[in-house]
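Handout, page 2. Input:
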Amino acid sequence: MGRPAIRLTSHKTETSRSNAVLPQLKALLLALSLWSTLPAAAAPISRDDPESTDPGRKGISTAHGSAVVVTANPLASKAALVALKNGGSAIDALVTAQAVLAVVEPQSSGLAGGGFLLYWHSKQRQLAVLDGREVAPERSRPTDLLDAAGDPLPWRQATSQANAIGIPGTVALLWEGHQNYGRLPWAQTLQPAIRLASAGFLPSPRLLRSIRLAQRFGVAHSPDFQALYLPGGQPPAVDQPFRNPSLARTLRLLAREGGQAFYQGPLAQQILGGINALQAGEPNFRGWSSADLSSYTVVRRPPLCSQQLQHRICTMPPPSSGGLALLQTLALLNQSTNLASSSAGEPQVWRQLARAQAWADADRLYWVHDPIDGAVPSAALLDPAYIASRARAMQRANGSRPLPGLPPGIDRYPYGRPSRGIEQGTSQITIVDASGNIASYTSSVETIFGSRHLIGGMVMNNQLTDFAFKPSLGGKPVANRRLPGRRPMSSMAPTLVFRNGEPVLALGSPGGRSIPHLLSRVLLASFAWDEPTARAVGLPHLSRRGTTLVLESDPPLPWPFPLQQLKSEASPRRQSIGSGTALIQKIGGGWQGAADPRREGMALALP
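Output:
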């Protein structure tokens, strides 16, 4: 079955027409669900690729207005839009959307995960960066994900280990943001999620397909996951409301007690009890202490900014490596291509984009770590002279795998060189309110359904597999090694773009290690190629992974040239690329939003 033709769908406001099509929508959900759970339709989870694309999407959801929300699920977008209608700020809508996603898109993000937020406060004219990344517990050891012989555990096995679960930061980030920038009562922002968890919702085709993928990946270690998502060994019925009463109770407690209740009090004790009960089956796991939760803090960081594509692009600094890779990719590409006169139809631009991706990856995967252990040389890695020298080396390399460079001020390589990392289960929310406040927020539980362990109805992350499994290589420590209290390197890169000091675009995407690859292509389309928002998210993606060039098969919009023209030194491979870009751009006097059709996201707007 081929992908249906893409059309553009606009959602300026919610209308009663949605009620009229509900029976047809239910029938479509049933058909798509049956299709998506067939064995042939379910791709295996890969270390290189994030969650699969959403088959059968018929349109690129767009919306234009004074306030816009773009999330990964229609239920989350609708709930966030209501928050804006009720006078809420972008942060109120964000809290609402993330809480709903914890219910309806648990395979990607949730309350027991982590994330990064860029928040533009229009009145104060300040860009805040909130780091809600997971933290390794105090009893962690650098060798926690090695076997008895000192070799790394197989990745699939490692994702299910209790040692892979980091101290969650999502609730702390949402609470911190709301306390500083919220207008609506905290409890009000959680009500839509509470209703959906208690009364139920029709599971989406993507959720059902994700449950099947998790089942194939391995859920035998989690009776709670099996009981909730695979009752009787089968996913929930497509035409019956799916409920998560345990999560509803957790959300009610958080609504009543506030975000700090996740880290201190009865809920915190429930989380500690559930986590430490895993010690019975995993002797190598030393458990968490109450201080692991109570001491968790959201870190405010300065944004990482650079002048690229005739705009000031601000993104997430370390411990994320995605922002650095995004800015380096664009800088390297600008050195090797005349972007001002380029277009999407030129294979040479795409070829150079793939090269720049690989060279940026070499630097970020070597140098980035939790800044608690010392500053990451981000500014030096973006220094124009350094970029120029790297670009010259890139052109001379003839396809050889790039090595990390030595930025200005550093005369030796202090770290061992690790293999590539991966991330899987991630989601993006982008929101602008009528006052011009903007939230770009990327959150994750890591692998699809995280560790597959559940506590209080929440999916527990496996983010600590983002640390290097081996803490040292070649007699040198790895920069991104696992240590107590550290935050693992990430690829998440929520981003805001400014022109003359004013924000003109906000975006982010899931997509694992490929996130900066995806976002660099979207920004190229938006600013170098002057593509409209729908085409910017719908054009094909490519991703350079080692010596392989992955070309998106069956993209929402066709490749703008015959692929045989895209000659590359890397071995080509065609496969799906499951991005989920949520893009909002200033157009005229309003904002235009677009949701990536590779997932089931929706853009909605207020007039």
